[in-house]
């Protein structure tokens, strides 16, 4: 059982890093609590594999500490960290039976045979591998092999955390959800800290109670799937989570209004005040003020209302369960999601942004309007 | 150019890979080949390209029989899953290569390369080499090479499958727009129903080497001609529940009775498979005639903004497609509502015998 703490952690592959861009991981503090189901989510090149290798012990961080239950483990090799890893491709012994594969980590630690058998049977039962125990591993399907890989981590009582690195890549799309269910079940049953690394938002949100979104070597948000969707803490999270991602508008406070280019935006008072404050603030020198709104929270109608803006509709795509409307506002392209059966709109229509879901970003980070 | 595949069979080592496919593609059309792995998509594209001749049947291009004409003598481009570029050539020279081979004047080539690069948003990368590019940029380069010559037929074999989903989203949008302005036939293979819907055009549903259905994408989605077509063209898959239709009611699982839709009453009494879309099942009743079902949660699959909820009733599993983020525990008991007026019906041979009226009327013409 372990709580994994990253303290002042940073990593550069350069010997003498000069600037922030030389760091694969930029200075960060982070705690993975004992028993949590976590995901580390980000695009390729964001630093998530580097971070995973630092936690597992394959890589020593160039700065800061990795603590397991408060103990510094920076120099401990992977085999002494009591961590199990499940990789993209199943790591099992093809010539051994499923039973022997599952028993291997225990026998390797000289566990007496009378204790090996019940443990293997227990784990096989949970993973629904019991009927396959006497089969040679090479005759298994990809999903069965991957379950054996997981089982090898679960048989060991000394394992404190399991790290998953894109474990469902080789699984047939139609079978993925079954393995996802299995993973959830295992987590609920074993009370082991699990960290699941992926670039896929579905994998991350399905598995994890909390997700760390990584971008350019930093965790830009650590939150529940719902928080990532409803309150993205960084513009990257808004863009990366959801399909399509959040729409952004660069705004300023001019003529007593919130302006998006030449278009005044009808926003509520708290938001208006927050944008005005940011525009006039001496501390903020970047002028980087944006409003974000998700496609799900834009209502489209054929007639204007007090709080709507006129838009040019470029296309409406029927995606089966909903339609995706593309429109232009102030020369910029926006996406809005319309529910199935929405009434048709012409080339000119009106968009209303749901107040509760308009978010303010200053220098790419979320600022809560009215909470300053 | 038009392309007509006439009664194509393709047999490799005694195993049929393509069986009796007849398909006519219109000039300027965008066509999606939708099917799972090994459905025959790649084989069919290879036959269209002329990379190999079919075992039986004819391939007619613009009225001419080209069945045995090799790929070199056809004006065809292809983009593959893997990003295939010349590693020793810059992006510029990679894109220019088909025109250089065709010995076109330099000034024309230069103009075309810049146009294509701009279309694909890689104009600032022209002097780089493929290994210096990200996956998305490499695939854009490969696409540039396919797009630069005025091919009669462009084939895309799951070109986005190795890219992350954000890039896929972008490139998919761009592809649709690129082909609006072109007169060639485009064929695009994918395993993903949602990709087919996003691309639009026409869709051909393939299953085990056979063509199940071909038509405008939305129509194939809404009016599948059979159970397989409906299952192939939905993600999460359409729910299928076997039941019995008697005079005025339908019975699921011998115990769940409910009065049936007037239109369904026209069907012969008997056993059918009833289909209901994952997005039409709900957690709150929508209508008085909804059927309440007691189920247990298997898993809630959450993708950024929506939830696929897998549950099981005593005898049959169901999947719900819910908007927004909903978290549930494994085995949590739950009530779900089954819209009895939104049922598809398939006979035991798998043919569609009933299609529900669209919710909310004809929204998009």
Short synopsis of the structure:
Chain B: Keywords: ATP-binding, Cell membrane, Membrane, Nucleotide-binding, Transport. The complex is a heterodimer of chains A (372) and B (365). Chain A has 372 residues and is of the alpha+beta class.
CATH-defined fold name of the largest domain in chain A: Rossmann fold
By DSSP (H or I, 4+ residues per run), the number of helices of chain A equals 9
**Overall morphology of chain B:** globular
Helix-and-strand structural type of chain B: alpha+beta
Q: How many DSSP-defined strands of chain A?
A: 22
Greatest chain-chain contact: A-B, 48 and 44 residues
User: Mean pLDDT across all residues of chain A, rounded?
Assistant: 91
Structural classification of chain A: alpha+beta
Secondary-structure element series of chain B: EEEHEEEHHHEHEHEEHHEEEEEEEEEE
Distance linking N and C termini of chain A: 39 Å
InterPro entries (chain B): AAA+_ATPase, ABC_transporter-like_ATP-bd, ABC_transpr_FbpC, ABC_transpr_MalK/UgpC-like, Mo/tungstate-bd_C_term_dom, NA-bd_OB-fold, P-loop_NTPase
Keywords (chain B): ATP-binding, Cell membrane, Membrane, Nucleotide-binding, Transport
Protein name (chain B): ABC transporter ATP-binding protein
GO molecular function (chain B): ATP binding
